[in-house]
Amino acid sequence: MTAPDGAGPGGEAELPAAAVVLTQVLVPEGLAAACAMSKVPVDAVPTPIGALAACRSTGVGDPELAAQVVSQLLQNTPVLLVTQRAGRMTAGRWSGGRQEEEMSPALVLDGAPPEVEQILLGQVRAADLPGAVSSVGMSRWRAARILAAAARAGRRRS
Fold it and tell me: How many domains does the chain have?
């Protein structure tokens, strides 16, 4: 007897792969724009600790590329990448485009907003969360305007 499509060996449904990049970026539009400029498909969602980027592509190396791109853009600010594949979670801290260390997913999730776990477990789609902004379909022109406005706002604050 074979398991139904999408089911594991025991017949239980297997979770679809998911990945989230946690940042301290204040506005999801800026995170989505940065990802759009680098052609990284994500849904950026606001949370109390900063915007997160839910990766739309979870193939081998895709979430890592998203973490690399985002951590390069946020040069001096580390980001966390949490992935879930076949029910197994991994987490790592990235900075300057490189993974610096592996972390305990349980510890990362313990301090993360509930949306992170909900996305990773397939309970909610990031695009359906309030304030979500997609990098997919965002023109380079619009992305550049958003990033320029964010840079101006940052200069005014300092």
Answer: 1
